């Protein structure tokens, strides 16, 4: 279980969040939805030690930790690919940092490139491909870390509808086949409802969880399910209420 208690961050006198709590059961795929600028990326950056938070008690699988550091793979909102490396070398960065076998990991990366529609672009530099391709490469790199916990900050935002649907299926596989625990930020409510076991609705600053929807519908889901449409309306109503508070 991932347990976050009392997370707090103040930027220049502005409270982004204080006493922020969140629990994610192991193996769950949970999604955060909230207005732009409410503090979602700041929370993920703090969890993974990209920035330091003012306060937080954290545990993962029962172990108290100062941050998730090497326990989670984190895909940030900006792709952060190194411009002078090829796409494949960018994807292999976790291997260069760690001590896994390069041959085995290259095969894994090439497989993922194939599944992500990046085959043939392995030797391209990031500035030679589209934003959506860079985003997919960043997702491959995140998966190459091979961690049990994955934090994704709008991982599919730059993709066309068809590619997005394909990669949503791939994200589901990470949960169902590889038992990963996933915490994802998205602005796409339908995406949240197709993938999530639980959806958390966040308020504008200071960020708190204003509502939580538990979805027990079997996956993969279709948006023709009237129960999903009903939840979508409730989520939209919650977000609108938050925006006018
Ligand atoms: N380095 C910083 N210095 C000062 N304020 C910051 C800094 N980084 C973020 N903020 C502020 O913190 C707030 C939350 O930003 P954050 O990027 O976490 O929001 P978000 O919910 O992820 O937004 P979006 O959905 O648009 O990505 C914003 O008001 C932002 O201006």
Automatic annotation (TrEMBL):
Keyword line: ATP-binding, Nucleotide-binding, Transport
ABC transporter domain span: 2-229
The keyword Zinc belongs to this UniProt entry's keyword annotation: no
PROSITE patterns, per database record: ABC_TRANSPORTER_2
The keyword Cell cycle appears for this protein: no
Lineage: superkingdom: Bacteria
Pfam family for this entry, one: ABC_tran
UniProt-recorded Gene Ontology molecular function terms: ATP binding; ATP hydrolysis activity
The name this protein goes by in its record: NitT/TauT family transport system ATP-binding protein
Native organism: Desulfocicer vacuolatum DSM 3385
